[in-house]
Every structure is written in C-alpha cells, then in structure tokens.
Amino acid sequence: MPLWLALCYLAPAAADTGKANTPASPTVEVPGAAQDRDEKSYRSMLAGVDIFERNRNLAPGAELRFKLLPRQAGVAMEGLALEISGANTKIALPLAADQTFSLPRNADAANDNATVRSNRKDKSLTWRADIRSPNVPPNAKRLGDLLLECKVAMAGDLVAYIHHPINIMITKMDDPCRSMPINMFNFADRALFSVTLIDGNRRSAMPATMLHGPEYPVMAGQQDWTFLRERVYMVKFKALYEKGWSDDTLLQFDYMDDDKATE
After folding, report:
1. Are 233 and 186 in contact (CB under 8 A)?
2. Where do the DSSP E strands lie in the chain?
3. Which has the higher per-residue pLDDT, 241 or 155?
4. Measured between alpha carbons, how far is 56 from 63 in angstroms, rounded to an integer?
5. Phi, psi of 11 (to 5 degrees)
6. At what angle do helices 42-54 and 143-156 cross, to 10 degrees?
7. For labelling, which of 37, 77, 253, 262 has a CA lying 20 to 30 Å from the CA of 113?
8. Main-chain dihedrals φ then ψ at residue 205, nearest 5 degrees
C-alpha cells in the first residue's frame, strides 16, 4: 500500500484527557441517531491539541482551530452545528463563518467518552486542523504551520482511515509526518492552478503531480478529499526539509480564478 494512501487511513491515537479549564457552554441539540452522525472522538481530538501545545515552536503566535469541509456532493454547510456529546455531556461548539472551531478542554466530557458530533450524516464531512501563523498572506500557507497540522491530524484522528497494519505501524513511529516519505492531503481555499515554494530568495514551483491528488486513488470511496480534489495539494515534508526548506517557507497559491478576477 503506497504511503500516501496509508496516511489517509490512520488508526485513532490514544489521548490525554487533560483537566477542565473552560466554563460550561450552552447546549445545542443535534438530531438523529448517534451512530449515523459524522463525529470524532473528543479524547482523540484532545490528543491533537496536546501535540499542538508541545510543538508551538513550529507555528509561533498561531492558535489551533479545526476546520470542516464537505466530503461529498449535496452536503449543506449552512446550518451546520457541532456539540461535544456523551451520555452525560452536551456542550455546544460555536462554528465561525469559515467553518472553523476551537476545542475546549473539559475533563468530564473526556471521562464521559464523548464525541465531537455534527448534525450531518456519517461520512458527510472532512475534518482538518487549521493553523495559521500571524502575517502569512491569505493566498499562502507556511510550511511549519502545515507540518504542525499534519502532527495534529495524525494524533487527533482527523483523516479518513481503515484498520491496516501499515497504518498502525506509522502511528507508532517517532514523528512520522517529518520522518516518513508520506504525502499529506491539504486544502486550499479555492481551485488551484499552481503552488510556488518561497523561502527568502529561493523559489521553486511545486510539481504538478502534487496538485489535485492521484488521478486514480486507491479505494476512492474511503478517501476524504476526492470531492474537493481541485483544491487539493500534497506535501512531502521529509523531502522538503531534506532539501533545506525552512519552517518559514511559504507555499504561495495561484488560483484557477485569479485571471478572471483581473479581467
């Protein structure tokens, strides 16, 4: 199994429950059967928060948010709602206009084996970490931010996965995002035409093969990026760092509709 595929199918990581340090929030009702809701383990996502806290040096001044995107056609993002939900837990999670949210620590919710539950059906949504250092242009992402997003995603079970021995092996490795030759699927804000790496005076166009995902993805139905493939770009962290690109490298996006905006 190719390693780019394995990264999409990660087994969930163990989590640190942490301690409650946030005030109680209003509740929100998310209708429907629990087993049919698109959701993530709250404790797993907290494990991603812990990874962010331990690696803040990769993204100085940034905050950790999580982002939701549609995984398939017909998924309405209007009216999307989230809650931390368990047998004894109901805590609303406010969503920003860009469908991002922050995750509070709540020891009771962690002990309740709660989930971060949406009001959309299972496999409706794609979940990602969203980390943005200050002063990064809106049409760019910083390499250190992306690396930390990968670390959070792997610890927090934020990408689609199947249980396979190679995935379990990868999650047990030390720093697989940077030490393994894997591809991480990321989303730009709009359809991509090209991506340029910029680090000081050094510039390099990202190969076209790193855009829009593989033409024939293996087990496409299990992937969580194919619906938005026109916005997808892949990052091989190990290769970039071995070639001397720094954390402050910017990936500058040239969007498909940029020329139309100037007409």
Report:
1. yes
2. 37-41, 64-70, 82-86, 89-93, 100-101, 115-121, 125-131, 140-142, 184-187, 192-199, 202-205, 232-235, 250-255
3. 241
4. 9
5. -75, 150
6. 150
7. 77
8. -75, 135
CA dihedral 79, 76, 96, 188 (to 10 degrees): 180
Higher pLDDT, 179 or 101: 101
Q: What is the pLDDT averaged over residues 76-86?
A: 96
- Phi and psi of 238, rounded to 5°? -55, -45
- Hey, how many other C-beta atoms are within 10 angstroms of the C-beta on 186? 19
Please classify residue 88 by burial: count the beta carbons closer than 10 Å to its beta carbon, then call 0-12 exposed, 13-18 middle and 19+ buried. Answer: exposed
How far is 139 from 84, CA to CA, in rounded Å?
32
Q: What is the bridge-based pairing of β-strands 115-121 and 82-86?
A: antiparallel
Q: How far apart are CA 95 and CA 172, in angstroms?
A: 32
Judge whether residue 18 has pLDDT over 70.
no
Closest CA to 172 of 155, 184, 149, 191: 155
Length of the chain: 263
CA-only gyration radius of the chain, Å: 18
Q: Which of 15-24, 56-65, 66-75 has the lowest mean pLDDT?
A: 15-24
Label residue 131 left, alpha or beta by phi (over 0 means left) and psi (-120 to 50 means alpha). beta
Calpha distance 57→83 (Å, rounded): 30
Q: Determine how many CB atoms are found less than 10 A away from the CB of residue 7.
A: 24
